[in-house]
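Fold this complex.
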Amino acid sequence: MHNSELSESFDEMTSGHSTGDYVKINIGPSHPAMHGTLRVVALTDGESIVSADPEIGYLHRGVEKLGENLNYTQFIPVTDRLNYCSAICNNVSYEMAVEKLMGIEVPEKAQLVRIIMMELARIADHEVLVGILGVDLGAFTPFFYLIIQREEIYEIFEWYNGARLTNTFGRIGGLVADLPSDFETRWQKLRDGIRNANDETDKLLTHNRIWTDRTIGVAAFSPKDALDWGFTGPCLRACGVKRDLRKDEPYSLYSRFDFDVPVGKHGDVFDRYMIRMEEMEESIKIIDQAFKMYKEMPADAPLIAKVPKTIKPPAGDVYHAIEAPNGELGFFIRSDGSDKPYRLKIRPPCYMVYQAFGEMVKGEMIADMIACLSSLNVIAGELDR
Amino acid sequence: MSQQTLVSACLGDMVVSISEFVGDLTVEVSKNKIIHALEKLKSDPSLQFDFLSDVVGIDNLGLHAKKAKAPKKDEPQQEAAPDAGATLPRFEVVYLLLSLSSNKRLRVRVAVPEDDCVVESVTGLWRAANWPEREIYDMFGIRFKGHPDLRRLLMWDEFKDHPLRKDYPLEGKNEERILNYLD
Amino acid sequence: MGEILIALIKVVFIWVWVLLCAVVMTWVERRGAAMIQDRPGPNRAGPFGLLQPLADGIKLFTKEDIVPAKAKKILFMLGPLLFSFPAFSTFAVVPFGDKFVIDGKEILLQVSNVNIGFLYIVALGSMAVYGIILGGWASNNKYSILGGLRSTAQLVSYEVPWGLALLAIALVYGTFSLRDIALAQSGTFLGVLPNWGVFKQPLGFILFMVAAYAEANRVPFDLPEAESEIVSGYHTEYGSMRLGLYLFGEYVNIVTLSSLITTFYFGAWHLPYIDMSAFLGPISYGIASFIVFFLKVAFFLWLFVWVRWTVPRFRYDQVMTLGWRELIPLGLFNIFVTALVIQLTA
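Structure:
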């Protein structure tokens, strides 16, 4: 597709006559910095970007159409493939939407395990983001420090349910399995590892003059614009808007935990990076508290609510959103009373963020555009669905 | 005052119906008043639904057929033609609103008949509606009047159909094969 | 006849030696990166993965040689050659040790002791840019052109502070010959410090060092081939051994630049406070001076690796700002101060 666009002739490309004085550069869908299959058609004046038009859809798999043709339980594995960096958050978000639709009360113990796993997934997601941001700005080393820790988190996932990336975590109504008995020792080791890696990254990047020069003030966005464009999650908080669904619309048991919501000031790449770094620490705090509560639970406490064998929710609409690592991840479900959703709409957080990308990078340089893209954490899986 | 009465007071006679289900408030407004209604909801000081979370398109073809079929359960099946519900508007656009100050959510529904598949674009109120509206155009074929750049979003430009319509088959219509011939 | 034979031996020897250094450097780079990044690195081919460069070489040689259909063929082929040629040729004037004395005959460990070694270095240093810009231009790829343009601007900008730092060195030692500069760095000055360029020209050393990183296109100045931005820059379209020549030329460049840093600023083959020629025989002294020289070079080679895996990359405009608004004024200031001091102490 778009073959004619890709193969501009040599003369056209070099003379600059094709698009006035500007050169049109096609970045992606296969380009080292276009994580996943993103594509940006940029009009450039030398190194500066005159306009950038993000094109999406290269990873479109018709997830919503699939959802209409699978029954409620069968759809859980499909949600893994949305934001594949933190599949557990997708699973739980979908399960909670269905539970809300059916009015199922999930046992507390299951909720605690879910929170522990979701926060682990959040840490893993943020670690990938910070690592990739470093790689895209030429700092290769922190990536490895962080990815090693992410691998440790994946070990925990694997040891819980046998899958590293696509976890298919939980069931509608609760969980199948309890946390294994040696979670505590594993978690303590992991926590130290994560803190160490974050410290190393902090030392290598945060006060590095080249790093600050490359990130501070780059692709800054005002809070007003951010809200207008429907930003949520770290990208919105970086602009200085304190909004976190875990605090503002506390779902599950989040109202019981004591944690801060880090907020930035300028909405630039540096703030987005710092917010992620700080959020990892907050997630560690949440996991510690959740695990403490979990330990106080009786060993034979139920893990799954009473759920009918075939899940047939009553007819009606429901929307439920959680704070995924990227922001508000919501599922809109219209049920017609059958065992399949009549319509299932996913609200991916980075979709809203990425649509403002063209405006965000206008006037910046190509290198800044890459930095900006990485800092938004656009995951093609949930963007294109 | 409950949220429901606040919303109906704010919108007045624009409300077609208002209902609550599992704690979610949904209000249906008539299609030609949608911009006005959303504007009012956004600026009303006691509601302040100032954040557009998402826009959802729905094709109710199957749902209407089912509704039409349901009362005739004991009668012979051939009576329930799929176009039995055609008198009801086929499509629906749902706006998911959120108030940042009170953390309340509201869904605003608009029914869109198949023969008049055009809705006013809300990109003037929230730029966030840009891609969701493009996606609905792509997936359902509902056009948005006043949208700055109404192109297909997820499917490629040469694609003819609207895949999330209920009459589009799950396995597609062999477009990939056609695409390969083009190369 | 004997002269020519000796010259030939020297040329072949240093050529093979530099090649070997560059080959080992590719291994050091990968193992060094692995060490810094908590991972094993290549360890399958041979002991400690030492045969990895050989495996890479075989792979590159046996790959299909692809020339893009719309590329300018001759220029496309010329690019990698022009890039690696100056890197090797610069070594002609670098003294890689002091001398052997065989049968009363002095053999200098230097291919050619020309008295305008400086000009030769600067001239050849500017040549490398042709290889890059030709490669970028001839590839018929927008990323390649961007890479070529970035590289040209960067190399041209950093030639200036580079040259200014060299000029200050020439002022200090009063000669353009590299061997004379090396010889002048024996003994001590001010009583305590070794008589090395770095102590006489600390600011000049920093300028030279920064400019050397920029000349070598290494992180933080690797913009011409910034992978995440412009895919691979000027060598995006290259494959097989042509790509190999570019990659390899970069390492040869690093070896050359490290040798220059050692020659100008770190006393070439001289050990601090110790005069090796006083207690070593004529042949063992020659060997010892060679070893000392390359130990110092090895340190700077490692520094190149170390820096690369530690810092992020600059942005294009930041590189330009650093070059023109900071390094060049500093270089001019350095020359002014150097000249003033020389004038006052003369």
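Chain B touches chain A at residues 21-24, 26, 50-54, 56, 58-59, 62-63, 66, 94, 96, 100, 103, 105, 107, 126-128, 130-131, 139, 152-158, 163-164, 168, 170, 179, 183 (CB under 8 Å).
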